[in-house]
């Protein structure tokens, strides 16, 4: 008889399969890449050196995988409708993109949107960022949360959950509030309208946050319960901090210099003063949020993309279990 081995003595199964850049890139060698250098230059974020080689190596396989998954999810949805005796209706395929402030979520989201739009099965792709669901500054001030912008409690989580549930539920028209990075506040009276797209990409720091416990001990739904796929954009914290500081320095000459900028007093800072200011915002707000709230959600993503110090993605971990 073999000696009994308790389950708890074994290492937990690793649900991820891991690829380096070269092996990931080979997975979709025959998939076309419908973007040009000019498209990529137009889509990349401030200080982000993403080029066509990066898109070819990383995003081409990813868009091929997503097409397969979206097709499979559509079939599953139709099977469920048949089982329930209902007329099948199309619902958007929802992709969540999570990661730290300044890690480059927006570039990833914009590149994916353009790639997916160029596939015949998913021509209508909408991109929504969760910053629109931050409470306005006046409300954050009232709640004592102005220094905690980006922490889970700085968002109207109920409104965000309702938004995603409505989109996934196939509602004809759903609206999201809009945030402006220049004024550093919600734009009063302006909204983004989502009308049953083929794909919705929802990008934000906390999109993989688990459901909150309710007062009676049960747990409510989480935004990620409505995701069909999710991506966590990862990098070393010290690299992300360097990108944050670098972006802050660049913004002095552009966004901060605008007359309506919340940060206009920063436009006149010397390099040393600007570095000190950026480091202080990073250490007091963005680093604790990354450590306490964002990094702990990494293992909940279906795909973790890890960047080098130069923004190149070098490791891909895909959930297979
Ligand atoms: N203070 C700011 N002023 C103007 N634009 C900003 C400011 N902070 C961030 N942005 C821009 O907002 C977008 C989202 O930034 P962020 O939330 O840090 O996510 P990420 O860098 O991961 O995409 C980026 O395109 C960034 O360049
Ligand atoms: C607006 C943000 C909270 C990001 O929001 P998201 O779209 O990820 O929900 C972030 O970019 C931010 O402004 N953080 C506050 C600290 C700072 O100024 O860097």
From TrEMBL:
Cell compartments where the protein resides: Cytoplasm
Pathway as given in its UniProt record: Cofactor biosynthesis; coenzyme A biosynthesis; CoA from (R)-pantothenate: step 1/5
Position of the signal peptide: none
EC numbers: 2.7.1.33
CDD domains the record matches: PanK (cd02025)
Keyword set, alphabetical order: ATP-binding, Coenzyme A biosynthesis, Cytoplasm, Kinase, Nucleotide-binding, Transferase
Catalysed reactions, semicolon-separated: (R)-pantothenate + ATP = (R)-4'-phosphopantothenate + ADP + H(+)
Phosphoribulokinase/uridine kinase domain boundaries: 94-236
GO MF entries: pantothenate kinase activity
UniProt: ATP binding residues: 99-106
Domain of life: Bacteria
Family the UniProt entry places it in: Belongs to the prokaryotic pantothenate kinase family.
Stated name of the protein: Pantothenate kinase
Organism whose genome encodes this protein: Georgenia alba
Gene this protein is translated from: coaA
């Amino acid at each position: 008889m073999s000696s009994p081995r308790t389950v708890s003595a074994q290492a937990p199964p690793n649900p991820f399969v891991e690829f380096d850049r070269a092996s990931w890139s080979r997975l979709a060698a025959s998939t076309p890449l419908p973007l040009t250098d000019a498209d990529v230059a137009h889509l990349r974020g401030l200080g982000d050196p993403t080029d066509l080689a990066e898109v070819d190596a990383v995003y081409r396989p990813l868009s091929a995988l997503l097409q397969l998954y979206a097709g499979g999810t559509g079939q599953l949805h139709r099977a469920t409708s048949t089982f329930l005796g209902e007329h099948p209706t199309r619902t958007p395929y929802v992709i969540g993109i999570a990661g730290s402030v300044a890690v480059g979520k927006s570039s990833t989201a914009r590149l994916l949107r353009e790639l997916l739009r160029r596939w015949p099965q998913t021509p209508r792709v909408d991109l929504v960022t969760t910053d629109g669901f931050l409470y306005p500054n006046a409300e954050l001030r009232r709640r004592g949360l102005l220094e905690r912008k980006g922490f889970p409690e700085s968002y109207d989580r109920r409104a965000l959950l309702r938004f995603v549930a409505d989109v996934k539920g196939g509602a004809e028209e759903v609206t999201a509030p809009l945030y402006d990075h220049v004024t550093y506040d919600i734009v009063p009276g302006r909204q983004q309208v989502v009308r049953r797209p083929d794909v919705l990409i929802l990008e934000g720091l906390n999109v993989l946050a688990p459901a909150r416990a309710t007062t009676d001990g049960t747990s409510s739904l989480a935004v990620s319960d409505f995701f069909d796929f999710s991506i966590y954009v990862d990098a070393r914290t010290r690299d992300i901090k360097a990108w944050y500081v670098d972006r802050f320095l660049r913004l002095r000459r552009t966004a901060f210099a605008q007359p309506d900028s919340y940060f206009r007093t920063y436009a006149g800072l010397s390099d040393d003063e600007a570095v000190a200011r950026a480091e202080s915002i990073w250490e007091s707000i963005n680093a604790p949020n990354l450590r306490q709230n964002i990094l702990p959600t990494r293992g909940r993503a279906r795909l973790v993309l890890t960047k080098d110090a130069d923004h190149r993605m070098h490791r891909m971990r895909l959930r297979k279990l």
